[in-house]
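Per reviewer request, we include the raw input and output of the structure prediction for the construct analysed in the revised manuscript.
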Amino acid sequence: MVPKEASGRPEKLGYRKLTLFFMSGTGNSYRNTRWIESEAAKHGLEAGLNLVPATHPASISVERETLFGFVMSTHGFTAPWPMIRFVLRLPRGRGAHAFAIVGRGGSKIGNRYIPGVEGTACYLMALLLMLKGFNVRGVMAVDMPANWVVAYPAPTPEKAAGIMNRARTRTLAFFARILEGKRSFGGWIGLLIGFLLVPISIGYLLVGRFFLAKLFFANNDCNGCGLCAGNCSYGGIKMKGGEKPWPYWTYNCESCMRCMAYCPEKAVEAGHSWAVILYFVSSTSVSMYLLNLLVPYTGEFIMNRWLSRSLEYAYLLASMAAAYWLFSLLLRVPVINSIFTHTTFTHLFRRYHEPETKARDLL
């Protein structure tokens, strides 16, 4: 049994195993789990790494002498949907101890390190784990090299190395506190910012992640090798076409940036000019116009608030899917492909993946 914590003084806990669940696109969270795994071995803990979503929640055996860790990156200023869904489907925790580490996009300007914003990610995970019956010992947000090159270039290798060194120190210090039986909760400023950004987080989970999935495309340098599809843990990329297959991003894409980071031809782009077109096609104003056209035929029934919102949402997803299908066909024309390639900033941005992590490590 796990020894109980003494009143007023933390007592070292009798863990025998460490089970880590991680979700990683470019290797940051994977490297975090490897640091923890290495430190656990020094304490005689048998550690196991489990990739989300490849691991089936029902296969997890929950034991009181096992410490459970959940490591992920921030998506939309909150926890990523695959990890949320994974935790919700876990067996009951029955008081087993758990912790969560959330990576956020850190940067460095000159000699100054700039922290990212994790929002509600840490404490949403803590809440979900508590609801599942786990005894949450701590949560921590840690700055990792910013990798979301849809919006900005990745840091230089030198800056990324500096950010990673700081992250390793913070991660191991946090894990040491957990092993000593201490509770470790922080990130209150990030949580406050997260509350202010809740509308953005909800919008991301409901719409944004699907919109972002439909921004990715392959430029003319793509040779149809299929590595991007084969390396995707979420089934977010399908190879379509005849003699020369072409990657096609589906709604399963989680914008983890693995395809862009590991493409040997640097052929994966996220279209900024295309984003403007896609936004117009899927905008609420267009859907409202179409709904108003239906009023003479359906009467006020169509104007029911919840029904109209449901129809708007259905239109949003359907219109983005249809527009992207047409977009993928047009991209087969080299001139059109070149226009969209050279009107996106990702064509100029520096790509990033954790230097020691291979794509196969994330499968």
